[in-house]
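Appendix C reproduces, verbatim, an entry submitted by the partner laboratory led by Prof. M.T., so that reviewers can inspect both the input and the predicted structure.
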Amino acid sequence: MAIKFCCFAREPLDDAGCWEESVDKLLECKSGQMAFREFLKTEYSEENILFWLACEDYKKIKSTPEMISTANMIYTEYVQTEAPRQINIDCGTRENITQNISQPSLTSFDTAQRLIYGLMAKDCYPRFLKSDIYQAYLTRSKKR
């Protein structure tokens, strides 16, 4: 019995219909990530998905030097106060990361990533499903 997994189809747009099942289905798909990022740009909150994706990549790192380098990049780009793409997290979480950034671990950003995921899932994702951007992807996928 053949099972079709979202985003394993030949045509990525074929999966636009499954994005409404959950934010996880959306984020599992490269094309879903791109569509959601496009939407978040219009809401001036693109940093959320960029941070979430950076954390996903970070957790796959195997070497300590690469982990330290990437942790510092994530910290300076998204976490530190006045970062170019500063994410919206509570000061306790930000302070905890700041205190531990000199000795990062693969879980250094887990709390912040969960907070941003929650923000995207509860706030941005429902608006995305109602957006013209998502509706356009749906229309294109149905025409195929």
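DSSP finds seven helices and no strands in the chain. Additional entries are available on request from the coordinating office.
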